[in-house]
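Whether sequence alone determines local backbone shape is best considered at the level of individual chains. When preparing material for the folding task, we compiled for one chain both its residues and its backbone structure tokens. No coordinates are needed to read the tokens, only the vocabulary itself. For completeness, the protein is quoted in full, as a sequence line and a line of structure tokens:
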Amino acid sequence: MEEYLRRVQSRLGAGLPEGPIHAVLGGPEPDVDTVSATLCLALHLSQKQPSGGVCVPLLCRKRCSNELPEETVRYLKRVKISESVLLWREDVDLVNLHQAGKLLLTLLRDGLLEK
């Protein structure tokens, strides 16, 4: 999983990919259920993604907002995922991608776009 997340970060850091970006937007709180569901669904969808596109798991809360819950930190350590490879909503400009016609979006919770 960490290798997948590093590949995603690398592709995003290299500029806009040729194909679409499929963002999987997790819930508002980075609890274990939300983080694991966001990561697993994005990885699964990435295996079905057409070439040139990238599937990006995004956590909703701002990166600088408090620390991750202790239970989530323990989960990440258990599955050997570094906090530094997690991607947050602020890491990807969803509005520009949408305006460019390159955004596919999967929401894991209702009301995520109202903010």
